[in-house]
Fold this sequence. Notes:
The chain has about 425 residues and is an alpha+beta fold. Among the domains are: about 75-120 and about 130-205, Alpha-Beta Plaits (2-Layer Sandwich); about 285-415, no CATH class. The chain has ten helices and twelve strands. The chain starts with a helix and ends with a helix.
Amino acid sequence: MNPRELRLLIALGVIVGVGGGAILGYQWFYKPLNDYNVTIRKLNEINRQKQEQVDATLEDRKSLERARLMSLSPNPDMAISEYQKFLQPLLASCELDIDSIKPAQVVDLSAGKGTSPPSSGSPGSAATAAKPGHQIIAFQVRARGELDGLIKALEVMQRTPMIHRIRALSIDRVDTTQKNATDRLVIGMTVESLVVNKAEVRVDGPLAPDQRLLAMESMLALRRGPTGIAMIPWIVGPTGPLAQQRLALESGYRQYGEIPRKNIFIGPVPPKKDEDAAEEEPDDVIVTEYIRLDTTDPVNREAFLRNLVFKSSPIRIRASRFSGFDTFRIQSEYKTRTLLKAKVLRIDQRDVYFQVQEEVYGMHLGQTLAEAMERTLSEATIERLGLTSLYDADWGAREAKEALAETAAKKKKAASR
């Protein structure tokens, strides 16, 4: 074997050795390791999904326990009696004359079918109460009264921490052709209340404190101990005073008192305009009091404002320059005047910070523009929130200058008349 053949043999041996080693390493080490890693990732993903299901189940269980405290008694007879005791005094306190309050049906959600309301002496009452699952008890209400009384009743029902809703509402005028007729309204409502499965039976209804807490409070009072401590679980619970305050705050954007300002039968009457004041509009409605921050998306840096007084599309705003939505205008009802012009500085999870002329304001989710502009942000607050670099001094100076010029022009026009 000559030297050339020896070198070729050595090269061939090296190639075969390296290739065989690579193949063996791939088959015995890399491929099993990769398969193990894929299996581990799949198992981790399955564990994550299972953990999310467990967390969701625990959260649902907390919500269910809270709902049981707000529920009527599990026995349909007692539930009907409890809700009638709540609804009848409520309508009477709102100066509504009750014609009838009749339980319509009991719907078992687990069975998916409805049954007629049980009577106190019916032999099937115990069997109906023993059924598992939640139940819906519907009531047909017919009353007469003024619109103000109906609005007050709706507001009280909305702020009452019970699981109930008005499924249907009909309002009609009394026939004025009859003798001694009045302008009172005929009101028809279908009210539904939920009976949660395994809810406790309470003597005084779902809104009353637990009898065990009352007994403990009485015992402390008799022994001259500190009173009021035993009632803390009810006060901070889902049916206590704090819950009612929270419901009132959550529904603060619902202005029930504004309903009588609109004729529910013929609609709002547009104001008359003369030729001399064609450009002017009535100032009866302060539009900024009805522009509410509806949704926020900090990831895409955008949010939406909703107009609750005029029929219009949601106002889209963005915190990105040159997007076309970094400034927004609030116009009057007939879009002849610009009431407010603002520049968006930043959009957070539940807050939007904006600039009007040379002032900076912050608006929380559910808050209106008028509420947000009641107080400007101080320089220390602006610096703490990191808005100093976002503040546009040039834009604010231009807007302030234009506002002064517009005010001077209006004064000059009014003086010339």
